Amino acid sequence: MYNASDNRYQGMTYKRCGRSGLMLPLVSLGFWHNFGYAATFDRSRTMVLGAFDMGITHFDLANNYGPPPGSAETTFGRILKYDLKSYRDEIIVSTKAGYRMWPGPYGDCGGKKYLLASLDQSLARMGLDYVDIFYHHRADPETPLEETMDALASAVRQGKALYVGISNYDAERAASACGILRSMGVRMLVCQPRYSMFDRRPEEGLYRTLDEQGVGSAPYSPLAQGLLTNRYLDGVPEDSRAAGASVFLRAEQVTTDRVEQARRLNEIALERGQTLAQMALSWLHRSPVTATVIIGASKLSQIQDCAGIMGRLDFTQEELSRIDAILSSPAA
Ligand SMILES: NC(=O)c1ccc[n+]([C@@H]2O[C@H](COP(=O)([O-])OP(=O)(O)OC[C@H]3O[C@@H](n4cnc5c(N)ncnc54)[C@H](OP(=O)(O)O)[C@@H]3O)[C@@H](O)[C@H]2O)c1
């Protein structure tokens, strides 16, 4: 039987998510890879329980995470039932809907029927009465935004979600979504954009909008799927995402230019007394809008490394300028 570490809150810092009452750990754990049926259950369980012992209280899921789709939620449901049940009130569970989940016209996109049916299915897979955060996973230009926000507001009114969020929305649509939701009496808690040193698009307007709206940001793929770690500095390891079955990071994306940039960033990280992964995560927290960063992992040791960012969140102006110079070099 699992008993959580008594020291679990001593090594983690919690940051307010936008203008809300919710505090999130600086580092959260995502279930996109390595938690479906294709992964080893014992390893998934070790990572979840190890993360919770480090003060990582936020677990990020989606209806389609696996493979196969849905299986990451089922895995998490098993861990919740057998290990974490008595800690439910110490845990923030998020899930999402927005990508294709079942056949036919009601299994995809941003319509109310799909979103609410999907949330019910997610709750059943996880064995939960409610999730803490329910996200619309991607913008859907074909569905009126009012309907998508109505679905999120309904999830809150039905008690099936405490908070709601959006993911992969641009600045303009995010601002509209926040306004519509507010008019329905519900506040937008959080936005989940892809954001890392290697993908700085949220700096072009989204972060300003989130700041104005009082919405927190939870960047995903903050390590560029592993490119911003020491994983690929000496080639593509056999057990890495780029060498595996994932279609989202292929070996040809591990280019010489990217590795060279990572190597130069790693030199700055080492000077700061950090690993490259730690510096990449600290760098995202330089903005107060970033409430947490949602990492992925294939091993507990990676989560331990990432959770160790606390000591060095500050950057000197010189460090930031050197990082900018590397990121704007031709390889970027
Ligand atoms: N909203 C959306 O549309 C969306 C999209 C994608 C992801 N997400 C969320 O974001 C989460 C994270 O995405 P991601 O997995 O791409 O994040 P990531 O943190 O950028 O990449 C994770 C990968 O980096 C490597 N890694 C992590 N920590 C490391 C360390 N300390 N040292 C060396 N290597 C390390 C591991 O690669 P190896 O596997 O090679 O060991 C790990 O699988 C997902 O699980 C999901 O919850 C959301």
Verbal overview:
The mean pLDDT is 97. The protein has helices at 41-53, 71-84, 112-126, 145-157, 171-183, 206-213, 256-271, 276-284, 300-307, 317-327, and strands spanning 14-16, 23-25, 27-30, 58-60, 92-97, 131-136, 161-167, 188-192, 216-217, 293-295. An eight-stranded parallel β-sheet has the order 9-8-7-6-5-4-3-10, covered by helices on one side. With 332 residues, it is an alpha/beta fold. It has a single domain (14-225, 278-314), classed as Alpha-Beta Barrel (TIM Barrel). The protein contains ten helices and ten strands. NADP nicotinamide-adenine-dinucleotide phosphate binds at residues 30-33, 60, 137, 167-168, 192, 220-226, 229-231, 240-241, 277, 294-298, 302, 305-306.
Report Rg. Answer: 19 Å
**What is the succession of H and E elements?**
EEEHEHEHEHEHEHEHHEHH
Shape: globular
Structural class, by secondary structure, is: alpha/beta
CATH architecture identity? Alpha-Beta Barrel
Strand arrangement, major sheet: 9-8-7-6-5-4-3-10
Oligomer state equals: single chain
Beta-strand percentage range: 5-15%
Please count the helical segments: 10
* Unreliable sequence segments: none
What is the class in the CATH system?
Answer: Alpha Beta
CATH fold naming: TIM Barrel
